Here is the input.
Amino acid sequence: MGRGRPVREPGTAAGDGGSGARRLGLGWRMAGVTGEPTSARVDAWIWSVRLTKTRSIAATACRAGHVRVNGERVKAAHALKVGDEVRFRHDGHERIVVVRKLILKRVGAPVAVECYTDNSPPPPPRDLTAAAGIRDRGTGRPTKRDRRDLDRLRGA
Here is the structure.
């Protein structure tokens, strides 16, 4: 044997300490009979089911108080369970979803839709939303008078 590298047992990961859960890639959660997680972090779940583009956006929304689980504001590490109602305010409208399945990794859109029931109100029709002021090309920056007219038009 001599000076060579230490030999690992087959099927174990380097530095995992021999933990069966870590060897199976289950991490901190307990594995049930089916191998599905029993809980998931709310920020990771929101990102996994594609309600946000990145996990950091989901964590920031939790920190700002834009995420509610069963009516209560939660931190990013709050544990979700199947059947919880998640209210998530993002980009000016509120999404209301009920957790049907817990996942920890980001999946494709068709699979993600199966993980929740969407109870969100429909967005307002486009004709009811105020149109943004459109300026002609090459007119430059708006003057103080133009800005006042725009503010008056918007109702500010």
User: Anything to note?
Assistant: Residues 26 and 73 are 28 Å apart (CA to CA).
